Amino acid sequence: MSRQNPYQQQQQQQIVLPSVGDVGTLVVKGVGSFARKHKVISTSYVFGILFLLLVGSGSKLTYDQATQYNKIMESIDLNAEYEASNRYAQAAHAYRATKGWFSCDHVCQRNKKRMEHAEMVLDEIRKEGYARMSKAKNVAGLFSEVGVNEVKDSFWEYFTAGKQFAKRQSMWDVMFMGIRKMSRDESTLEYVLKVLLQVLINFSMGLIFALAIFIWGLWGIVKSYEPNPLTAVVFFIGASSAAFAFVSTYLFAIFGAAAGGVYGLAKVAESNARIENGQRRQNVGYHPHHQ
User: Fold this and answer.
1) Is residue 6 situated within a structural domain?
2) CA 144 to CA 138: how far, in whole Å?
């Protein structure tokens, strides 16, 4: 029974990475298999993409709609709300200044009544302003540029907040993982892979939470336009699906870029290993003759 030399053993243990074409084929097959097994998710994704393409930036307001919308919006008395808000803040400050830990004398009771009255006035003014705003939104319509842009602004606000959360959390994770690396004497490659995985987890958590909060508040925006029930349901489902499709695509791109980077580094390492193995093979096969 012949024994293998170290070069032959190392050559048998060498892992051969798939080519770029094979990786693309595997990804396509994996996506297709996932879509077939999770039809609700895949349908929501496709519907969200179609909703984005069809709705776009919303329908333009006609001249009559724009005139009526601006007229109603200009009738909202913002100065009255500002003054009422200041009066409530002053009354609340006076009440807290005269209130004891466990008691409230006649001065405190007087300030409390003033605060409650100021709060009631402020709530009435705001209620009237919200009612006029809803009337103006109803004139514009939920699928108009006004409604679509309001939903877009809400989505981008939460989406940006989710990314900022992920960046802050990743910064702290990099710092603490670096400290653990020095104490555990980890290799640089292991540290980089752990950081990359943690960054991907942070972005997934931040954007998924942002998506959930956006969908939670979306129904409030839809109701403020006072649409008919069918329009409200269609828009809510479409906007939710569109947000889900965008977040999913963003996360898929991040994970794909990370996987591509790791694959590229692995291919470089594989090429270097082949070169080293070739050099070792030449050295093993070369036997100088000493005279």
Assistant:
1) no
2) 10
- For 1-14, write each residue's pLDDT tens digit: 445 555 444 444 45
Task: Give yes or no: residues 40 and 81 share one domain.
Answer: no
Q: Which residues of the chain have pLDDT under 50?
A: 1-2, 7-13, 291
In this predicted model, what pLDDT tens digit does every residue of 241-273 receive, in sequence order?
999 999 999 999 998 888 877 767 666 666 666
**Residue-number span of the structural domain to which 74 is assigned:** 60-140
* 242 lies in the same domain as 127: no
Average pLDDT, the chain: 82
Predicted local distance difference test score (pLDDT) of residue 10: 47
